Amino acid sequence: MRLWLGALLVAMVASAAWAEMDTSYIYRGRAAILLANGRIELVVLKTGGSFPSITLAGDADPTNPMWDSLRADQEQGRPQRVTGAVGHFICVDGFGQPSDEERRAGMEGHGEAHRLAWSTEFAGESEGASVLRQAVTLPRVQEALRREVRLLPGENVVYVKAHVTSLLDFDRPLNWAEHATIGSPFLERGVTVVDMSSNRALTRPRERATRSGLAHRLASREEFEWPMAPARKGGLIDLRAAPLESHSLDHTGHRMDPDDEWAFVTALHPERRLLLGYLFRPGEFPWLQTWESYPRDRMMARGLEFGTQAFDLPRREVVTQGQIFGTPLYRWLPARSTIGASYLMFWTRTPEGFAGVDEVVWSDGVLRLRDGRSGKTVELAAGGTL
Hints:
This protein is mainly β and 386 residues long.
């Protein structure tokens, strides 16, 4: 009995040591919160609630897969952006640019949540886990957003649950996207590959050229079977990896299989043997948009943006269109009511020869990532719930 109690005490102490929280963390000059569990370290900005960085704990030369636009601002001598639009940020309520009338009224792109200071309701250890609960009120759209981020000891998984509450007396369409974005150097031309679960895909409609000077590689408004997309100049382009040479900007929309309980999207750097991934419910986030920003001379970015609509477009356009492939482009937020969504985020090393992800299964407290090319499987402890 003494031996068993001693082992239990050691396990409890070790578990508590794994759960870490630094609420005074500074990330590239920005106030942030650092969550850690002995396997991964996640940074959350206090303004915008964004995830600008996720790294492996104890790594001598840590790789951050996220699109670090704050670093890009510093490297290019630009004024540092004041919003939380960095790495993985949340677009609520709104995904895309505002209409002319909304802009004149003060509304900006991708909703309010990533521009406002979030309050911390709880930050610390709960049942051996690192737990962060935050909240923000969105005055322009009259909504309240609450989110919980949880890291369990010894896991490479982040559990995220969020809820949006209407402060209005009438039902309204809601636009919500998780703007998960990877960037260079993790995003490397011809090397880093993106995989996703079964879907029905469409290239973004293009009525005019991009203002950024970047060219479009893809044809406008055409269906395709992932990952082979129709090129603007004819033929097909494999979208799994960024092109070896381009100065381009493109978007694709993907209706995730509504019959699946879970959908996934992953990004793998096979040479660094590092993998970032997300698991989410098509019933909550039926759409995935890829944003491919591949400038020749600046930091590249690739959005893995799962949400309520196919493309980041003005609210009026999205609601007017209503649906694509029979799937709605928004969720209803009933009067004075709350709706929620949740997802898993994971960051891990992969075995030598692991070349991509063809299947993700979460069962019995284990997340299994199968690569049909090499026949190898990555198994991650995932004992939490959503």
